């Protein structure tokens, strides 16, 4: 059988069969308890079994119900005497079966539907559902079908339908009340409680009490025992399991029914129906009160259990959370300590502000930089009288520009803001580079602002030092050209705004180079320092003195407008040079040439003003130095020409743009060639021929004359050697020497070198030196000229008569020849003055044993006059213009006996 059916199906059919048999057996027991007159059982146990079976096993068990109920009815009413009887029995059985199936299935369905449980005794609501759907409604159907079936088949007359229905229904209802809760409460695991001494004690006490109370109604103690049943059951409710409690109710019901059936106890009276109803009411009250109380107790216990569970869970959660928090707290403390150590070792100061800018936290470095301890800083606001923040220009920062304020306003990080901190306990400003960022919580609310600042004072100081170096002259400490230009620009803008004026003075030391050359550079530097110091002292606080190059200074006189005001200021500058400068124990008398220009009339731009002051200064130089000159428009043309020539001069020698021409000189008495004068010529590819009268002074100013002068001397010497080698008799070649050349200490050596280099005999050369130079530098000139003369080279004084020479001076000078300046010759024979001067010069020179030569002789009359005055030699266009060496060579021939070659030769 089991092989044919699956395991589950077999079990089900087994359970169905067991239920049918159980139903049949308990129904038979019920029938045996049935009492006249209705022969209805006071408690119909199968009803309780089948409801419990459906609830516990499922709806599929219904065939067991049907079979049991059908079989019971058929067995009770089976009459095979006639087919009708048999049919009636089967029909009644079927109605009974259907009624009980519907009773159990519908009751179970409604209970489950409303309580969602198959054990509907654990809460009060479940208990009520069990009573309503299982006890009242379900049994109504079984009674309806059962009684109707019996009446319809004639086993019971219709006249007794109501009474039978009532007793059937109440019997079924009591059966469900007594049996179902008990069967539902049976749990395997709870059966172990049944064997506890407490349960046994309870069973014994209950049994004795029940039997005593139910069996002995007339006895006073019986009443007491009966009344004691309820507390006993209640004790069970609280102390024992639901199955024991419900079992006790079953027991009490069984005892009551037994007492009722055997005619003892409380439910015995004259009216049998009343007795039955009383019994059923007793049982119903016992069971319902127990069921409800049990459900309340269970619900309470369940609630308690849930609460306990919840509490346990809560405890566990709290413990876990506490542990977690403790762990986190410890980790946090470690992390905080680590962070604290970290920020305290930072090279940057750190200050944490609250959103109201009060200080929450600082590190060690911040304490050092801000000069207060953490405790002193805590709670202070960003704006505090103790410290003051300044910007790059040392202007006090407004509070809204503080780093913390800027972050508060923008909610953005701040990067590399430079600011200075001025503290009352320090004289100097501490410069810092501040960075910062806002810190927000998870909701985006600003909670803190963290500012870090790095001390860059040393960088700032270096920057200031660099800035000073970049804008100041290292030697004198005065502003340099860069700073001067900037200040001049500012002054111009200021003057422009308020229609003001200013004066610019270009100061150039006269012949400073000579100090360097003769005394050495340290002496030159010392002199420059003293000049700078005196100039700076000679002007007002608001004026600026700058050194713009070697020996050039610029003075900016603020607010000086009219020329007369400027003149007063410049006179003060000139005064500076009146007192000698003590350099290395020797007083040095230094002069300066100054050029002045005034804003706005002489220029509006920096460059223009500087250039015009420079032009004016050059004019002062040309005017004989040691003086000043105001700028005028006419100066510009000269200055431009000057600048053009100056530029063109650079490299002219290398480009071989120079050449020498030679002008003959003759003995006046016999008209024999006595010599030639070498004259420099410069042909610039673009500017054309430029007169030495224009470019020599410029070359002298810029020192180029030394190179050019050496080239002239060398070329003349070589020419002398060439002519001599060619057998030409040229007498001497007179070479013009600039004062700048002689000023140098080594000029005699230079001449010697050149003579050697050109293999030129000294007697072939004559050097012409201007009278004005010799007179200015008499002592020096005497020394130099003697040394030159010692070489065997002749010396002539050029432009004689213009330099205010005195007889005593002339006597000291080692001179061979005096050259009367052509300006005296020019007006002969018209100007008696000049003629008298010429006569005097000739007489004077002859008295000193010197040869006299007159230059610029253009006319016979001039030659005649000179001849009458016994002038020795003449030079001029009358005799010959300056020409090249080749051109002059034929002129040399008549006077020379050729030695090696008959051809004129160029050097
Ligand atoms: N340091 C140097 N100075 C030099 C050199 N070469 C020339 N000079 C000087 O330049 C000035 C101008 O010289 P230059 O234009 O060459 O004029 C000379 C003659 O050409 C001119 N001269 C000669 N005879 C006459 C004449 O009859 N009438 C007239 N109007 N001019 C004439 O005179 C100049 C010569 O002058 P000086 O030297 O004083 O004899 C001039 O001062 C030159 O000195 C040089 O190489 N180095």
Brief rundown of the structure:
It catalyses: 3',3'-c-di-GMP + H2O = 5'-phosphoguanylyl(3'->5')guanosine + H(+). This protein is an alpha/beta fold and 907 residues long.
Jot down its keywords.
alpha/beta; Arp2/3 complex 21 kDa subunit ARPC3; Beta-Lactamase; six-stranded antiparallel β-sheet; binds ligand LFPHGCPZ
Indicate the topology:
Blueprint: H1 7-33, H2 45-57, H3 62-77, H4 83-115, H5 124-152, H6 161-185, H7 197-215, H8 220-239, H9 242-262, H10 272-344, E1 349-353, E2 359-362, H11 364-370, H12 374-377, E3 388-390, H13 403-410, E4 414-422, E5 430-440, E6 446-455, H14 457-471, H15 481-497, E7 502-509, H16 512-519, H17 521-538, E8 544-549, E9 552-558, H18 563-575, E10 581-583, E11 586-588, E12 592-599, H19 606-622, E13 628-630, H20 633-649, E14 658-667, E15 673-684, E16 688-690, H21 692-701, H22 705-725, E17 732-737, H23 739-743, H24 747-758, E18 765-770, H25 771-776, H26 778-791, E19 794-800, H27 807-812, E20 817-820, H28 822-826, H29 832-847, E21 851-855, H30 860-868, E22 873-875, H31 885-892
Parallel strand pairs: 12-13, 15-17, 17-18, 18-19, 19-20, 20-21, 21-22
Antiparallel strand pairs: 1-2, 1-6, 3-4, 4-5, 5-6, 7-9, 7-12, 8-9, 10-11, 14-15, 14-22, 15-16
The protein binds ligand LFPHGCPZ.
Ligand LFPHGCPZ binds at residues 663, 677, 679-680, 691-693, 696, 712, 736, 738, 768, 798-799, 822, 855-858, 875-877, 882.
């Amino acid at each position: 059988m089991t092989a044919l059916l699956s395991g589950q199906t077999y079990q089900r059919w087994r359970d169905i069969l067991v239920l049918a048999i159980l139903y049949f057996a308990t129904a038979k027991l019920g029938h045996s308890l049935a009492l006249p007159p209705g022969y209805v059982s006071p408690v119909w146990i199968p009803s309780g079994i089948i409801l419990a079976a459906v609830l516990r096993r499922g709806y599929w068990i219904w065939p067991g119900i049907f079979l049991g109920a059908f079989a019971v009815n058929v067995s009770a009413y089976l009459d095979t005497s006639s087919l009708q009887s048999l049919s009636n029995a089967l029909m009644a059985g079927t109605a009974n079966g259907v009624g009980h199936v519907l009773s159990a299935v519908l009751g179970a369905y409604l209970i489950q539907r409303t309580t969602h449980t198959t054990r509907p005794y654990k809460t009060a609501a479940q208990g009520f559902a069990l009573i309503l759907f299982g006890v009242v409604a379900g049994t109504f159907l079984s009674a309806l079908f059962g009684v109707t079936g019996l009446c319809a088949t004639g086993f019971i007359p219709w006249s007794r339908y109501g009474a039978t229905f009532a007793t059937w229904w109440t019997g079924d209802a009591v059966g469900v009340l007594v049996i179902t809760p008990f069967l539902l409460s049976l749990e395997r695991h709870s059966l172990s409680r049944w064997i506890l001494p407490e349960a046994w004690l309870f069973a014994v006490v209950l049994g004795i009490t029940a039997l005593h109370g139910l069996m002995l109604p007339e006895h006073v103690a019986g009443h007491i025992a009966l009344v004691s049943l309820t507390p006993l059951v209640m004790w069970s409710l609280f102390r024992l399991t639901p199955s024991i409690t419900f079992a006790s109710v079953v027991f009490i019901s069984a005892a009551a029914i037994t007492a009722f059936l055997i005619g003892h106890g409380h439910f015995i009276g004259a009216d049998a129906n009343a007795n039955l109803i009383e019994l059923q009411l007793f049982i119903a009250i016992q069971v319902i009160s127990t069921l409800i109380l049990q459900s309340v107790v269970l619900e309470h216990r369940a609630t308690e259990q849930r609460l306990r569970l919840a509490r346990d869970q809560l405890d566990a959660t709290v413990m876990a959370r506490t542990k977690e928090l403790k762990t986190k707290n410890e980790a946090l403390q470690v992390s905080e300590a680590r962070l604290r150590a970290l920020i305290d070792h930072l090279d940057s100061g750190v200050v944490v502000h609250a959103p109201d800018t009060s200080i929450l936290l600082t590190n060690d470095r911040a304490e050092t930089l801000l000069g207060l301890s953490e405790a002193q800083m805590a709670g202070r606001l960003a704006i505090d009288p103790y410290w003051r923040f300044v910007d790059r220009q040392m202007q006090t920062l407004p509070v809204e520009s503080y780093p913390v304020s800027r972050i508060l306003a923008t909610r953005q990080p701040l990067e590399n803001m430079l600011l200075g901190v001025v503290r009352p306990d320090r004289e100097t400003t501490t410069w810092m580079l501040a960075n910062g960022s806002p810190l927000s919580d998870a909701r985006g609310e600003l909670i803190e602002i963290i500012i870090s600042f790095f001390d860059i004072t040393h960088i700032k100081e270096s920057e200031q030092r660099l800035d000073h170096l970049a804008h100041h002259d290292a030697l004198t400490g005065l502003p340099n050209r860069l700073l001067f230009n900037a200040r001049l620009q500012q002054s111009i803008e200021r003057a422009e705004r308020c229609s003001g004026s200013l004066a610019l003075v270009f100061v150039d030391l006269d012949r400073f180079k000579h100090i360097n050359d003769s005394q050495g550079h340290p002496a030159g530097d010392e002199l420059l320092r003293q000049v700078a110091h005196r100039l700076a002292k000679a002007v007002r606080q608001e004026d600026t003195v700058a050194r713009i190059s070697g020996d050039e200074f610029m003075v900016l006189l603020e607010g000086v407008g009219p020329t007369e005001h400027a003149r007063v200021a410049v006179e003060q500058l000139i005064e500076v040079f009146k007192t000698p400068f003590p350099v290395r124990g020797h007083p040095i008398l230094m002069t300066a040439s100054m050029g002045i220009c005034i804003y706005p009339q002489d220029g509006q731009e920096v460059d223009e003003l500087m250039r015009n002051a420079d032009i004016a200064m050059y004019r002062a130089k040309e005017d004989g130095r040691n003086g000043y000159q105001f700028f005028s428009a006419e100066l510009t043309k000269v200055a431009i020409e000057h600048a053009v020539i100056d530029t063109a001069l650079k490299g002219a020698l290398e480009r071989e743009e120079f050449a020498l021409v030679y002008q003959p000189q003759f003995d006046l008495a016999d008209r024999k060639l006595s010599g030639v004068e070498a004259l420099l010529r410069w042909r610039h590819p673009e500017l054309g021929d430029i007169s030495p009268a224009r470019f020599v002074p410029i070359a002298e100013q810029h020192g180029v004359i030394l190179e050019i002068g050496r080239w002239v001397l060398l070329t003349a010497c070589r020419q002398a050697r060439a002519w001599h080698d060619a057998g030409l008799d040229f007498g001497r070649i007179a070479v013009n020497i600039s004062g700048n050349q002689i000023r140098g200490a080594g000029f005699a050596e230079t001449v010697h070198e050149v003579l050697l280099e050109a293999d030129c005999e000294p007697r072939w050369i004559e050097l012409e030196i201007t009278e004005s130079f010799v007179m200015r530098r008499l002592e020096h000139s005497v020394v130099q000229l003697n040394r030159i003369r010692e070489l065997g080279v002749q010396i002539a004084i050029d432009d004689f008569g213009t330099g205010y020479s005195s007889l005593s001076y002339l006597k000291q000078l080692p001179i061979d020849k005096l050259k009367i300046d052509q300006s005296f010759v020019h007006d002969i024979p018209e100007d008696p003055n000049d003629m008298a001067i010429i006569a005097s010069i000739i007489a004077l020179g002859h008295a000193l044993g010197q040869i006299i030569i007159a230059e610029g002789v253009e006319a016979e009359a001039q030659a005649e006059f000179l001849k009458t005055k016994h002038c020795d030699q003449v030079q001029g266009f009358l005799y010959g213009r300056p020409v090249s060496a080749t051109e002059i060579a034929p002129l040399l021939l008549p006077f020379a006996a050729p030695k090696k070659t008959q051809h004129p030769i160029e050097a």
